[in-house]
Amino acid sequence: MTAASEVAGRAAVVCGVGAALPPHIVTNADLTARLDTTDEWIRSRTGITQRHVAGVDLSTTDLAVHAAAQALADGEPVTVEAVVVATTTPDRCCPATAPAVATRLGLTGVPAHDLAAGCTGFLYALATAAGLIAADTAQAVLVVGADRLATLPDPEDRTTVPLFGDGAGAVVLRRGGADEAGALGPVVLGSDGTGADLIRAPRPGALYMDGAEVFRHAVDRMSTASRQAASAAGWNVTDIDRLIPHQANSRITSFVARQLGIPDDRRLGNVGDVGNTGAASLPLLLARSAADGRLEPGHRTLLTAFGAGLTWGATTLTWPGLSPTRRPEGAGHDR
Ligand code: UT7
Fold first, then answer.
1. What predicted TM-score, i.e. pTM, was given to this entire model?
2. Which one, 133, 139, 277, 288, has the greatest CB density within 10 A?
3. CATH of span 2-177
4. pLDDT tens for residues 142-177?
5. Which residues are the active-site residues?
């Protein structure tokens, strides 16, 4: 039988956070110049005013490395023993992104793999990393969410082009006690393949999305998963200081907060500045909010996401004493 103290020592504790965005910004005005749309429509239907878009010189691997390097540099000094990269837009079908990310960070030899779960990928990766720690495979795991979703829409499709942007975010998880600040609570995850056709991209440039139906599922699934994760952590929803929802549309996150009874000033967001960045969305928002003070040590924080698959999830943590030194603007070379 496992002693209680040993179980407590197998929790996964967030001890570093970082993010990276491509330097090139595409504004709503840039889009109205080439698509049959308006700034007013995009803002009022989605909350988005601009998105960062990577050029051909900035790959998903590059973005992942920049975000991870910041998480490692700004966090507690730990020895990373595994790498998980959540992405729907790897640079190639084979090999996976994570081994290349690990090697570029000087971590050659550690277990490293990719994970695809749409915009919920980061939460799936957190659960996977917590499992690697619980299984004694690694004492510390680098978890990256990196996507170049701007590559997925048909460039002529006004219904999807305005929604998506590129970016990456990362956290470092280390083994620790369940009562420590930063310890992940239970991670609630789910999927429903009957909705596979609602968001699908058989290849880059050919994204199809049933926006209204996805909207409805997103509100419903994120609200339900959030309640389940809060309850599994022993929290009342009224205990939640900060709601960190996946950033696809500010109307969706507003509905989720309302359904949960969480006051709007506790709902954090950055979709206006970055659009929907897929698996990067949650860690990007964590890094930005920690840097600008909207997320403070001690805040009881609930993360939730929804994405293609369909997939969804939620988890909790009390935010630790972490604040990245830089805002996540400008991935590396040409900010
Ligand atoms: O990460 C998870 C995956 N994604 C999401 O969670 C996204 C979920 N869905 C949404 O965010 C929203 O459904 C959208 C933003 C995609 C669309 O908003 P909506 O309020 O559901 O609009 P709609 O699709 O019902 O379209 C309303 C109208 C249509 O015109 P008609 O048929 O009423 O004449 C569209 O053709 O708006 C039109 N429209 C546009 N008009 C100007 C669609 N895109 C545009 C556009 N500019 N860019």
1. 0.94
2. 277
3. 3.40.47.10
4. 999 999 999 999 999 999 999 999 999 999 999 999
5. 119, 246, 276
